[in-house]
Specification:
- With 213 residues, the chain is mostly helical.
- The protein has one domain (3-198).
- The protein contains six helices and no strands.
- It is elongated, with a radius of gyration of 18 Å.
Length: 213
């Protein structure tokens, strides 16, 4: 496939990712608040934080259509800095929420939406991840491969949400929601740390060394 068509495909995949994360985030936050489900709320906020990073990738792919350069410009680096801060705030918020829920012994009303949303996300993110990996390898593009690895992280987060939601539905034990929230908080912290490291780099070669999601 010609390089320009591969870049256009990468652009389409990025737009699909942004659109899906927007819908996923809105649904998760709405039901996370209405059903008092902290893990679902955290998952939804994470979707919006991922969108900030994805806008940086979108900007880079658009530049790739005009030139071969993948060196991050100021827009992409600023997107990573904002992403880093947002992930750290999400981590702190989730940990605080777990502490408050433990003290007040708050429990979710239901986690059924927490079963439906990640089930759809697992299928969607698996497709996007494999497609981005394929396009990234064919383009020999570290930026697209980095985006594929970010999608893989979303794939894993979906399993955390699904597992905690299913356990709560079957057991009714309130702390299961807290455990799931802490799992998402850990992923958010590691992603924030990696966004900090990426913002200092001149390229995305770290993905080849296994140091980036």
């Amino acid at each position: 496939m010609p390089r320009q068509k591969l870049i256009n495909l990468a652009l389409i995949l990025t737009i699909i990712t942004l659109t899906y994360n927007l819908a996923e985030g809105l649904i998760s936050i709405f039901f996370g608040i209405s059903e008092d489900t902290l893990v679902l709320l955290g998952f939804g906020v994470d979707s919006f934080v991922e969108m900030i990073s994805a806008f940086g990738i979108l900007h880079m792919v658009l530049r790739m259509r005009k030139s071969q350069a993948e060196t991050p410009d100021s827009f992409e680096k600023n997107a990573l800095r904002i992403t880093r801060t947002a992930f750290f705030l999400l981590t702190a918020g989730l940990v605080a929420g777990v502490i408050i829920n433990s003290v007040t012994q708050a429990k979710p009303e239901t986690t059924m939406v927490g079963v439906i949303v990640p089930s759809a996300s697992i299928l969607t993110m698996w497709f996007l991840m494999r497609a981005k990996q394929s396009v990234g390898r064919k383009l020999n593009s570290t930026a697209v491969i980095a985006d594929a690895n970010c999608t893989k992280t979303c794939f894993y987060l979906s399993f955390i949400l699904l597992a905690s939601s299913l356990l709560y539905e079957f057991t009714g034990i309130g702390w299961v929601d807290s455990i799931g929230s802490l799992g998402i908080a850990w992923f958010a912290f590691t992603e924030g740390r990696e966004a900090f490291e990426k913002a200092r780099l001149e390229n995305y070669s770290c993905v080849y060394e296994g140091n980036c999601h």
